[in-house]
Amino acid sequence: MNEKNVIQLSCPMPRFDFDVINLGHGSGGILTHKLLNSGVFDVLKNDLLNTKHDGAVFELNGKLAFSTDSYVVNPVFFPGGNIGELAVNGTVNDLSMCGAMAKYLSLAFILEEGLPIEEFWQILNSIKKCADKAGVQVVTGDTKVVEKGKGDRIFINTSGIGIMHEKAAIDFSRIEEDDLIIISGNIAAHGIAIMSKRQGLEFETDILSDTCNLNFTIKKLLDRFGTLIHFLRDATRGGVASVLNEVAKDGGFGVEIRQKDIPVTEQVNGACEMLGLDPLYVANEGVFICIVNASVADAVVEILHQDGNGINAAIIGNITTGHKGQVVLQSNIGGRRVVNMLPGEQLPRIC
Amino acid sequence: MKFLHEYRDAAVAGRYLAELKQVVTRPWTIMEVCGGQTHSLVKNGILSLLPDKINMVHGPGCPVCVTPLHLIDKAVYLAEEKNVILCSYGDMVRVPGSKKSLLEAKAAGADVRILYSPLEAVKLAKENPDKEVVFFAVGFETTAPANALSVLHACREAVMNYSILTSHVLVPPAIEAIVNDKTNVVQGFLAAGHVCTIMGMDEYYPIVEKYKLPIVVTGFEPVDLLQGILMVVKQLERGEYKLENQYSRVVRPEGNPEARQVIEDIFEIADREWRGIGNIPLSGYEVNKNYAAYDANRKFAIDLTKAGESKECIAGEILRGIKKPGQCPQFGKKCTPLNPLGAPMVSSEGACAAYYHFSNMEELV
What we know:
The structure holds 2 protein chains of 2 kinds. Chain A has 10 helices and 13 strands. By secondary structure, chain A is an alpha+beta fold. Chain A is globular and about 65 Å long. Chain B is α/β, with parallel strands linked by helices. Chain B has helices at residues 10-23, 35-43, 63-66, 69-81, 102-107, 118-127, 144-156, 171-180, 193-199, 205-211, 222-238, 257-266, 296-299, 315-319, 351-358, 361-364; strands at 28-34, 54-61, 84-88, 112-114, 132-139, 162-169, 188-192, 215-218, 243-245, 267-274, 278-287. Chain B is globular and about 65 Å long. Classes of the chains: A alpha+beta, B alpha/beta. The interface between A and B is large, with 32 and 50 residues.
């Protein structure tokens, strides 16, 4: 979307005669309409949304992909973004990983009574900004309000429909022996950025979340390499280790990775050391794993390096027929160990 | 990162490994005492690089693993029944008590908080004057100063709704208990670097002399561990027994006098039950009587029936280095991190969990 639309976002803030969300905003009555008409519709306006139907009616040609995701992040605002940005980029990226360009999104809010309207407004503006940047439109939505204590400020669900890239053939079943594994950027920044602001844990850092839309990056790769791109997955919850375990288990191969090639910044590494966390398991929002035919791996990395979202991309390992179902990491000093799925949330160690 | 990269350097690690291979002529069994060292050995794949003649066995130095079942039950009880905000270090919350873990209590509505520092718990107590705040003060000598300091702070600021539930254990008595056991197989020890950072090295001289065992105070990075193992092996090969300090960049012979003073002010040495091992005389800290008001054990006089351990769990043998996780019939089968039969499968420092997370099952058995 062009710059002009983004600039229009700074339009004067609508006057709300209430400071916080209350149950009335979810009642379907006057307050709901006020919130929608003087806020949501105004910010997100587009032809499909403006019809104000119960749903959006449209035609799409070709093979489609459909995905949904819910966003419950705490804190809602974090270094490098907020929940609204995640809600757009997350679903856009999920579609991208299927090989689809996101076209339309649905947007559902569950608001907790007491959420400052100002914050809701900021989040809504971020949603618009990110949607424009990713070239998607929010075409239908919903707003509910729950009593104080029954939510955590704001929860968002977005679903998205995208049109499949004609050359895309991305699936676990397409992974082959000797394929190479590429990571698109420095890992673990998002999780650490969030943690740096968690209550009781605040620490000084300028680490920012890596949230971004990856659809144009993926399109570039598919345009150029088509079916030689065998598998894509964004390394969100559970981090890189969880994605690679899914590859090993669902793909039916072994995965080998080299610790020394996995890009992670000094700062993020330092924070992980301090917190007793393994960056391989820390969440990312703008980093993806790409498994490709070995013949194009260097070219894929080169393209990624020229793309704003892949400056630190690197080949980190390969697919093997050995140790099926397992991810094996070669440590910096040459030792080998298995990288398993986490049994639950990663918990900080005592000492 | 300064002081980390150097100790993770592949070339340096390679040199120590080569020297180890050259020096070792006979089989030796060496125990790393600290769970942090176990974690690092397994995580960095060091065990797969060591010469076959060197058998590393994993010690009891995982505070989470040795915290008795009934204390976890007590923590759960306080959180559920006594209107208490129960604060804990992270990896303690998943350890199952006889009925449930703190994490399960939290899911059922109890107020359980994961904190990095007990001073945060004192702050919580100040912010919640109508609630009791209890910090689950678990750990070896390493965490004792911070836990003691929290009591000191609470006392100075007259925060009366704060107390600690102590499960503090000490390394030297544990080493002696292992050596004195009839089934002992350990011929040399890597002592826990961070414990010695606080306590210094003096406590270990008598053990070296009495049992004629090499002990090397060792750090946690790959190069530290390899150098520490090499130092122990060199002594063993020469028939020597000395106390040496591999971790001299951090550990001073006298330790940290200020930290020791805080410990002395708040705690007294007492008998302690170690989960999986049993009672070891004079092997832990309790809050002393001057600070009794901050001792959750005294403050909440509850007498819970002591629950029995799972009969299938061989944690006692694991923690004394007699068996390795892969030798347990339930390892990875009935006992997994999601459904642990005993504590060593829970904490990331526990030998069983470290093996489970980082090892190839087939290679273990």
